[in-house]
Design goal:
By secondary structure, the protein is α/β, with parallel strands linked by helices. The protein has 4 domains: 105 residues, von Hippel-Lindau disease tumour suppressor,  beta domain (Immunoglobulin-like), CATH 2.60.40.780; 224 residues, Sandwich (Jelly Rolls), CATH 2.60.120; 149 residues, no CATH class; 172 residues, 3-Layer(aba) Sandwich (Rossmann fold), CATH 3.40.50.2000. Helix 9 packs across helix 10. The structure holds 2-oxoglutaric acid and fe (ii) ion (FE2).
């Protein structure tokens, strides 16, 4: 419908119709209560904080949202819900109604519930029904108390004094047993392996090991951190930014969570090393080293805290642990304190009650316990200490505080960089949503098609982003050089720059998003805010670190997932985060198949051409034996017209053990992935020889490198290559194996080659027909 020029009534009518059908709404919130409050978008799970409103204040910006969206309200900084005191129900706002601008009110009387045991999230009932109260008690009891009470009678554990005993947690074995502390320090003082770090015992029980003082263990390693690592820590600190130090304040939520207050006893600044900082190779190296020497996993550490003291700045006498208020992760049991530079004067760390003072020295680590050897659940009141004021120069240092148990009771943390999850409209007239931003980080040398397909296919909850998915900008963060085989990184980057950057394509999974390929940058320099950050961590490597950074973090995994994840120590964390994981292998609830590849063209095959059989194997010798027998059978009626191309780094060497095929074998391994795919696209058939394990219950993709073949299956599907595979694999992938013929064999065990030999013979016979018959006229 068009309106005549100047016909305002007509215009207005159209506007009204548009508005009625437009589900978009702009809402504001007035907070009349005495609490500073966080407004969470209710995503049906844990909610996403979209705005903080001051007490007796209102929305800093209007919130752009949609009809039907729901929001809930908690006290700022902790997730304890604010309730309407008359009903004791948590305050929810549901967007609806006819008005375009909805205003919601947090009533004056809003307060925290008198009922201590409440659910904080709509998802609680579901989680409790799944058994989460038992699997992940720490988190669930704080956040889903009511459901846990109903389901398992665990509600009384909301009281942190009752909840947080080690026996109760029952989740992991604590880091220290009786005696662990003495063992650990004794090993550092005596074992050959630690000499390289230049240990020096300052204090020990009984003045053993050359200690000057009789008392708790205090030890330095004078050569613990190298220059490169120091540089990484200092650079990493810049990402977080140094801020005036804070202390934990009073408990402000019934769950035991605490507020932060600016410290008076501590005038230094500190930066937390998270996100970009903690994944820097130099930083990781230090954490890994601490893990190595202590034997305590990094899950038990707080993030590195990096400290900066200018002249006159200090940290008064304090203890790193407290006698009470244990939370889920238990006491801080050890402090690993690193000096990152030499300080001209002052800045000593002094154990005030012991008469010990340690001078800052670049690269030195100072380590002391906060608990007792004989009773590691009780703190050691002797290790009070202070940082003396810096007199001349600047002091840089870093803390790793190690806890008894992993930190599993923290709610999913909102990431700092999560700026763009929901846009707030600056001006009412600005109707158009901003573009969505997604970033894919290639954590190791995985084939580019996995990265590309993650961009094109990884399922993302666009609806919760509030950006325009039709103009999505996708970047790649190029990561972790040291995990790449030499000379593989650059070709990969070239590929991105020459084939992808600057192009625009609709997503291949049909979700309506349109991708504009942006830039590729070193992950360390990558600082753009994003709606989703997808880590391609295919080897079960780093998934936890990635996902625990925040709700906008996602992970791609390969076919194998460490059983240790699903069943072991990290099981509850896995359960908590797994919804943001997707595989490149259809054996999992969420998967996608990389398919953005140069495609195989059967018509390129000419009658009489050599058949190119491309081989990749989980067990190279067994696989080559299979092929050897297959070829021998063919050789009974003359030399077959085939070429065997080995795609693995090791296979050509092993093929020498099989004289009947070794003359047919060509090395096909190619570190440049684009060339590699091109080469693969010239294969006439792919043999991803994945063999069943002979042990029952340990069939395909056992936890070992063998599982990586799932990547080859994905490639074969993407390339539309003919295949010769094990029957059960064919079955697993059958939905996807529709573009090219598949020959399959069954094997009962690794020495049974018969059905392979039959299928191999049939394939060599029938394949040329397929290639020629489908050729274009
Ligand atoms: O800076 C120092 O020497 C000690 C700092 C300290 O004790 C702390 O950060 O807990
Ligand atoms: Fe301290």
């Amino acid at each position: 419908q068009t309106c005549a020029n100047g016909d305002d009534t007509c215009r207005a009518n159209i506007d009204t119709q548009k508005q009625a059908s437009d589900p978009r709404r702009t809402i504001t919130i007035d907070n009349l209560s005495k609490y500073r409050a966080d407004i969470h978008y209710d995503d049906g799970r844990f909610g996403k904080i979209i705005q903080t409103v001051t007490s007796k204040g209102g929305s800093p910006n209007p919130i752009s949202t949609f009809v039907g969206h729901r929001f809930f309200v908690t006290m700022h900084g902790v997730r304890e819900g604010l309730v309407d005191p008359t009903t004791d129900e948590q305050i929810f706002f549901t967007v609806g109604g006819d008005e375009l601008n909805d205003k919601f009110i947090i009533p004056k009387e809003a307060t925290t519930s008198k009922t201590r045991c409440k659910d904080r999230y709509p998802v609680c009932k579901k989680e409790a029904a799944r058994g989460e109260c038992t699997n992940n008690p720490g988190w669930m009891i704080v956040n889903c108390c009511q459901s846990c009470e109903e389901k398992e009678g665990y509600g009384h554990l909301i009281d942190s004094e009752v909840r947080c005993t080690r026996e109760r947690l029952n989740a992991t074995k604590a880091a220290f047993d009786v005696g662990s502390l003495d063992d650990l320090f004794t090993r550092w003082a005596t074992e050959e392996a630690f000499v390289q770090y230049e240990p020096n015992v300052i204090s020990s029980p009984g003045k053993t090991h050359g200690a000057e003082h009789d008392g708790p263990w205090i030890l330095t390693f004078d050569s613990f951190v190298d220059d490169e690592e120091i540089e990484a820590l200092l650079k990493g600190a810049e990402y977080g930014g140094f801020e005036r130090s804070t202390d934990q304040g009073n408990i402000i939520a019934s769950s035991g969570e605490k507020e932060k207050v600016v410290s008076t006893s501590r005038t230094s600044s500190n930066a937390w090393c998270r996100r970009e900082c903690e994944i820097m190779p130099g930083v990781k190296r230090v954490s890994n080293r601490i893990e190595e020497i202590t034997g305590i996993p990094q899950g038990n550490y707080e993030s590195f805290q990096i400290l900066k003291y200018e002249v006159g700045e200090f940290y008064r006498r304090h203890h790193d642990s407290s006698g009470k208020n244990k939370n889920m992760s238990g006491h801080r049991i050890l402090t690993v304190f690193l000096y990152l530079n030499d300080v001209e004067e002052g800045g000593e760390t002094a154990f005030t009650d012991l008469g010990i003072s340690v001078k800052p020295k670049k690269g030195r680590a100072l380590i002391w316990p906060s608990v007792l050897n004989d009773d590691p659940d009780s703190w050691d009141s002797r290790t009070y200490h202070e940082a003396r004021a810096v007199v001349k120069g600047t002091k840089y240092a870093a803390n790793h505080w190690i806890h008894h148990n992993p930190n599993i009771d923290l709610p999913l943390q909102e990431s700092n960089n999560d700026l763009s999850r929901i846009t707030t409209e600056k001006k009412k007239s600005e109707k158009k949503l901003r573009p969505c931003y997604i970033t894919v980080e290639n954590k190791a040398d995985y084939h580019y098609e996995v990265i590309e397909s993650a961009i094109m296919q990884f399922p993302l909850p666009w609806d919760t982003f509030n950006c325009s998915k039709e103009d999505t900008i996708a970047d790649v963060a190029l990561a972790q050089q040291h995990r790449w085989a030499k000379n593989e990184l650059e070709p990969w980057q070239n590929y991105f720059e020459t084939h992808l950057a600057g192009t625009t394509r609709p997503r291949t999974n049909g979700d309506g998003a349109v991708i504009h390929f942006g830039s590729i940058q070193n992950y360390m320099n990558y600082s753009r805010a994003y709606d989703a950050y997808i880590g391609v961590s295919c080897d079960s490597f780093d998934w936890l670190r990635q996902l625990s950074k925040g709700p906008n973090q996602y992970c791609v995994l390969h076919g194998t997932v460490d059983k240790k994840i699903m069943q072991g120590r990290k099981k509850s964390l896995w359960e908590q985060h797994k919804e943001r994981v997707c595989w490149v292998s259809p054996m999992h609830p969420c998967y996608f198949i990389p398919s953005d590849l140069p495609q195989f063209k059967p018509e390129n095959f000419r009658k009489g051409d050599k058949l190119r059989l491309c081989l990749k194997a989980s067990t190279p010798t067994t696989s080559l034996r299979y092929v050897d027998e297959g070829v021998k059978r063919l050789q009974q009626s003359g030399e077959p017209n085939i070429e065997i191309i080995t795609m693995g780094r090791l296979m050509p060497i092993m093929s020498e053990a099989f004289p009947s095929i070794s003359h047919l074998v060509t090395q096909g391994y190619e570190p440049d992935y684009y060339k590699f795919e091109e080469m693969m696209s010239k294969c006439h058939v792919l043999l991803p020889l994945i063999h069943p394990w002979e042990e029952p219950g340990k069939k395909y993709f056992p936890w070992s490198g063998a599982g990586k073949l799932s990547g080859y299956m994905s490639q074969a599907i993407g390339l539309k290559l003919p295949l010769l595979v094990q029957e059960e694999i064919k079955e697993l992938y059958k939905e996807h194996l529709v573009d090219a013929p598949v020959w399959s064999y069954t094997t009962q065990n690794m020495s049974d080659t018969r059905s392979f030999v039959d299928a191999f013979g049939a394939m060599v016979k029938e394949l040329p027909g397929y290639l020629v018959n489908t050729s274009a006229e």
